[in-house]
Amino acid sequence: LTMRDFSDAFLNDYVKRVIGLPGDRIQIRGGIVIINGKEVARKRAGDFMGFCPENPCPASQYEEVLPEKRHVMVLDLYPDGPFDNTVVCVVPSGQYFVLGDNRDNSDDSRGSVGFIPAREVVGKVVLKFLANGRLSWQPVG
Asked: What one-character DSSP code corresponds to residue 121?
């Protein structure tokens, strides 16, 4: 999902994954996403070498299986990070709950971005760019 934020003098585009639809109950507990009381399956998928402000840093990589059976890869830099535990949020009508795939380094519905009004959604992501030792474009299913 690509969305626009008109909250300041600059136009900001965000790319996030929709996790919650209107009426869904969303919570994060111990880094595990819970949608309508059911944990999203997650399994360890090795390490990912990311880049912190001044040097490379490894992040734990997990494969999540979302309710529609879509498999996605997410990163966890810090076990028990600041957004790894949330209260239950009920997604309001006409809005979405979104998460970034780099969970500990993403401003999303857990933080200042909050719920996303449907009117601010401007497109769907169809390709992602990876630069982990090689440059490549990969389709997003």
From this structure: E
